[in-house]
Automatic annotation (TrEMBL):
Pathway: Amino-acid degradation; L-arginine degradation via AST pathway; L-glutamate and succinate from L-arginine: step 5/5. Its cofactor is Zn(2+). The active site is at 213. This is Succinylglutamate desuccinylase. One of its GO terms (biological process) is L-arginine catabolic process to succinate.
């Protein structure tokens, strides 16, 4: 059986670029890009991506398992589906990225960089997504979803969480219900546009899009998948057109809004968040989070929690987010 991850990691020419099972057709659309189409008509087009950052292994393993179940016939396919392994070059290096963070390049922002593997790949993924949604729409799939699977660099007080890109249209109730059913502990609402893959799919294709964070980045084979059964079950029901699973945890999903995007714009940028602080660690009003020439980031609300603190990003990029509860 075709193994998406093994073929992608091997690189080079693909000997078996298309195939079919009793119920679906599949086609290799480019490195790490696999389209699966059921033979029955369907009204939904779904993109699932993982490995946009090459060392985020849980999502890659999960995506590959789900693809295997569909190709083996163990699981029925009831949507048009595009499975994307985002950054094969950095997956082979087991690094977040080779030259630059690809999840800051979407929406054409790749053109602002000196060309490299990630700029070319971001452009290729944009085109693959455009072709997929366009042909799916022509075939009658009017509902579009995009889930981009990641893991965080640090541990988190909330292990499973999502990030919704900024959008002006109302948030989809169907997606919010699905995210809650997946057992997410928290959902973060962005307040500004960004170069993320989900911002691109939401803005350009009006997809219901969400970045899903599944724990902390660990090497292949070291992941505890039992922490992510809710998300796995959610994705299974989505692709198979099954009813929503029941939320397994009794706790409600917490909502946070971004109140500050902390940007490293100067060489002397200094972050005051301890290196071992977990994501969602709270800070009190007035505390200084980061400082650089001409700018001090201070907690403005009674309490703000920190997300993705990282002083080692390139100039002009996000070095963290400050959130407040909604
Ligand atoms: O842990 C970190 O510092 C980053 C984890 C990660 O890759 N997160 C995504 C979130 C994308 C979004 O804001 O929707 C990223 O930073 O690209
Ligand atoms: Zn990531």
């Amino acid at each position: 059986m075709f193994d998406l991850l093994a073929v992608t990691m091997a690189g080079g020419p693909v000997t078996e670029p298309a195939g079919q099972t009793e119920t679906l057709d599949w086609q290799w659309r480019g490195e790490g890009i696999l389209e699966l189409s059921p033979r029955v008509p369907c009204d939904t087009a779904v993109v699932i991506s993982a490995g946009i950052h090459g060392n985020e292994t849980v999502p890659i393993e999960l995506l590959n398992q789900l693809t295997g179940e569909l190709l083996s016939g163990a699981r029925a396919l009831r949507v048009r589906l595009l499975m994307l392994l985002g950054n094969p070059a950095s997956m082979r290096l087991n690094k977040r990225f080779a030259d630059a963070d690809m999840n800051r390049m979407f929406g054409g922002r790749h053109a602002r960089y000196t060309p490299n593997d990630e700029t070319r790949r971001a452009q290729e993924l944009e085109q693959a997504m455009a072709l997929f949604y366009r042909s799916a729409t022509a075939a009658g799939a009017l509902h579009r979803f995009h889930y981009d699977l990641h893991t965080a660099i640090r541990g988190s007080l909330h292990v499973r969480f999502g990030l919704l890109p900024l959008q002006t249209r109302p948030k989809s109730e169907a997606m919010l219900a699905w995210l809650s059913a997946c057992g997410l502990d928290a959902l973060v609402h962005h307040r500004s546009p960004g170069g993320t893959f989900t911002h691109f799919s939401s803005e350009v294709f009006q997809a219901d899009s969400c970045t899903l964070e599944l724990g902390k980045a660990l090497p292949f084979g070291s992941n505890d998948h039992s922490q992510f059964t809710g998300i796995r079950r959610g994705l299974e029901t989505l692709v198979s057109g099954e009813p929503l699973p029941a939320r397994e945890t009794g706790k409600p999903m917490l909502h946070f809004r971004v109140v500050q995007d902390v940007i490293r714009s100067q060489e002397d940028f200094h972050l005051f968040v301890p290196a071992d602080a977990l994501n969602f660690t709270p800070f009190k009003k007035g505390e200084v989070i980061a400082k650089e020439t001409g700018k001090t980031y201070r907690v403005a609300e009674e309490e703000e929690v920190v997300l993705f603190p990282n002083p080692n990003v390139a100039l002009g990029l996000r070095a963290g987010l400050m959130l407040a509860k909604m």
